[in-house]
Design goal:
By secondary structure, this protein is of the alpha/beta class. The protein has 22 helices and 7 strands.
Length: about 450
């Protein structure tokens, strides 16, 4: 055994089909084992609200130790975990193969799965996980849906807070009336002179770029075509990250089977798979193989998947980039999202933007505090802004013309943080994702 996690961290398959996974006594024993180790270490105190809650809970107990803490009081600690994986990836010295075998995010997932099996997923949270259904229902009435969910709507947002528990001030993604898949029939012309001509890739559109901001996927496809990459679009189902957040592992497994089956023929024909949102890339690459390790299609897909920024950087290093990139005026602040970092691929979004000549790129690598659906809930929104305040403060100080994140939801959350600091709307472009900036630099 070596101290300090000197070996590369590894993860075990998630034993969600085993009864012991949900056994209350065994789960409680594991929570107490891990919480005791975390309380004695405290290296993760500044990552998210789970750890301050845990340390305050134990420090405030009668003995100042875990033995006088009631198991019923663990709930706030478990609820505050956003499954960002940053403790596992960047901080914890006791992750496997260390003998302490500590995987805090997956233990929180286990606790949520046990609660979901015992009590079910709360109504509001369950509806938020149905991203495909919500997107399909909203598309025909997108202007009305966007009016109803707009921050500042004094008629609908208080009702949403009361009924669904969504904070009335939390920024929510807009819906599009023309999902990306409905536009995918007309592919951009592939540049035969592009340096990467001969490459073929499938864009896994993701629910966000399909139903909320298709410009992300449109920009990705245009940049790839400019560089000679032939693309197809496939989107059979959501990756299941929203379900994972609520402990619905069986739902994630079902989505994995559908998506992997649909992408298998393309992989067999030599196509790479590109996800345009990092949470989805993380699911395809790393979470799915741990949930259904016996599914050969999932394993094959995990090895063929790239994040869009990762793919562009790889292409640039191996074949080079097509000419025509122009400087972006006013500079860029780019936030490296937690789920980008959890892919263990480096700051690929920043690397990609540095391909643009004579453009100031400022990198912010710290949690935005959003945490998927977690940060929009009434009980969490103010905490989410507090966690993300260092990110918002740095972006506000730089005052770049463009503030982007590889996670579009994190980007909008950062803008809300900037607004709180400056007491006025953030004066930045509407661009959310770095791939849109690369397309802009190409004039696409």
């Amino acid at each position: 055994m070596s101290e300090g996690s000197l070996e590369a961290p590894t993860r075990h398959p998630i034993a969600w089909r085993d009864d012991d996974f949900y056994n209350a006594d065994k789960l409680d024993a594991e929570l107490r084992r891990v919480f005791d180790i975390c309380h004695g270490c405290r290296r993760c105190f500044n990552l998210c609200d789970s750890f301050p809650r845990l340390f305050d809970l134990i420090d405030g107990a009668e003995s100042g130790e875990l033995d006088t803490v009631k198991s019923a009081d663990f709930a706030p600690v478990i609820d505050a975990c956003t499954l960002c994986d940053m403790c596992f990836m960047t901080k914890c010295p006791y992750v496997p193969p260390h003998e302490f075998d500590l995987d805090f995010p997956h233990l929180m997932l286990r606790a949520r799965a046990a609660e979901a099996r015992d009590k079910g997923v709360p109504f509001a949270e369950k509806q938020l996980t149905k991203t495909d259904r919500n997107g399909k229902l909203a598309a025909p009435v997108a202007p009305i849906a966007n009016w109803a969910t707009k921050t500042g709507n004094g008629l609908t947002r208080p009702i949403m807070q009361s009924v669904l528990g969504i904070h009335k001030d939390a920024s929510l993604p807009k819906f599009t009336s023309k999902p990306f898949t409905s536009r995918a029939g007309t592919a951009p012309e592939v540049n035969p002179q592009g340096p990467a001509f001969g490459r073929k890739a499938v864009l896994y559109a993701t629910c966000f770029s399909n139903y909320n901001n298709p410009d992300i996927a449109v920009s990705a496809r245009a940049v790839l075509a400019k560089n000679g990459v032939e693309t197809e679009v496939v989107y059979p189902s959501c990756c299941g990250m929203p379900q994972l957040e609520q402990g619905d592992i069986a739902g994630v497994a079902a989505n994995a089977s559908v998506v992997a089956g649909a992408l298998k023929p393309w992989i067999e024909k030599g196509y790479d798979v590109i996800a345009v949102v990092p949470s989805c890339a993380l699911m395809l690459k790393f979470e799915w193989p741990l949930i259904v390790p016996e599914n050969a299609d999932v394993i094959t897909l995990s090895k063929a998947t790239y994040d869009i920024t990762e793919y562009i950087v790889d292409m640039g290093k191996k074949e080079g980039m097509a000419e025509g990139l122009k400087p972006l005026q006013g500079g860029v602040s780019i936030h490296i999202s937690c789920h980008s970092r959890a892919q263990n691929m480096g700051q690929k979004g920043a690397e990609m933007l540095r391909l643009i000549p004579d453009t100031a790129i400022d990198v912010i690598e710290r949690c935005s505090g959003h945490g998927g659906s977690w940060g929009i809930m009434k009980d969490n929104f103010d905490v989410a802004l507090k966690i993300g305040k260092p990110v918002a403060r740095k972006a506000a100080e730089k005052a770049a013309a463009h503030v982007v994140s590889e996670c579009p939801l994190a980007r909008d959350h950062i803008l809300q943080g900037i607004e709180r600091i400056n007491q006025k709307p953030a004066e930045v472009s509407q661009v959310q994702h770095p791939i849109q900036l690369l397309a802009l630099a190409y004039g696409l």
